[in-house]
């Protein structure tokens, strides 16, 4: 092959791409971004942007991890009882595999984007048990060995810490959570099993209820490995750095790991310098909290390109929540993330090195912001 053809893919990668590279240097496992099948993206008709979008998405200096924003959800994987379809989920799983990126899998049991047949049926408790077991057995079984982590149960809690009423809870109470984790552990023993929810980024009744879910499972000897903080944040009222560190420590006290699983920081559009500066601070704080806590393994953006964000479609007048604008200019918040990744390194337990490579121990970093 001619040398110039060989060099082309290298030239396509941006020399500025650095989030995953810096995250690794800071002691995280990954910095990633969720992505979706073209047909599922929030904004259609942007085909002209795909090439540039894909180049950023596939650049492992930028993103070392990905999550399918939609394709592995119940609605798509088991649209009819016993009929399984992995076409959409595979698109992103294949991207991860081809790029050598870590795959977080999302989500096995969730009240939303559930197939209508589950929601609209009239079921006995035994039937709901069977439905959960069949779904997890097939979906987690199909992806077995490919998922670094599974969001096993998603959004089971209300803001006051009580359980959300759902077809699963109404039939089985909290036992549905136990059943889901137990089944997932049997089906894919190597995947990290997470409880995932929003508004878990500062201490609250909901964060304490998440801790109680972990304790409930542990008390019964059921495997749970992580708490996922979705972190759909708002630029002018996000949790402080200290609150984020405190809540991560409260999860870590149960022995589980922690991840930012769906980070975005929305603002009221049109943006201005002040709003973007606030957004930068919020991104810097979340990244900083992950870097400064032993338990936090990584950060996932909920996509990285503003036109593909869910935010404007749900919160009228809000948007610009990610790190790349429509014209592919980066938000100032990109530099906030870089600052947090370069200003600190992960603390580690006394006597425990950071593992592979340098053989150097490292000190607990001071709070930086
Ligand atoms: O990004 C997803 C969007 O494309 C879907 O329309 C939406 C439907 O609820 O789900 C979005 O992702 C959600 C995630 O799966 C769970 N946490 C909240 C996310 C934003 O709604």
Automatic annotation (TrEMBL):
GO terms for molecular function: endo-1,4-beta-xylanase activity. Pfam families: Glyco_hydro_10. Residues 349-369 have a biased composition (Basic residues). Belongs to the glycosyl hydrolase 10 (cellulase F) family. Keywords: Carbohydrate metabolism, Glycosidase, Hydrolase, Polysaccharide degradation, Secreted, Signal, Xylan degradation. Residues 1-17 form the signal peptide. This is Beta-xylanase. It is found in: Secreted. GO terms for biological process: xylan catabolic process. Its main location: secreted. It is an enzyme of class 3 (hydrolase). The keyword Hydrolase applies. It catalyses: Endohydrolysis of (1->4)-beta-D-xylosidic linkages in xylans. One of its GO terms (cellular component) is extracellular region. Residues 345-369 are annotated as: Disordered. Its EC number is 3.2.1.8. Coiled coil: none annotated. Pathway: Glycan degradation; xylan degradation. InterPro entries: GH, GH10, GH10_dom. Residues 40-340 form the GH10 domain.
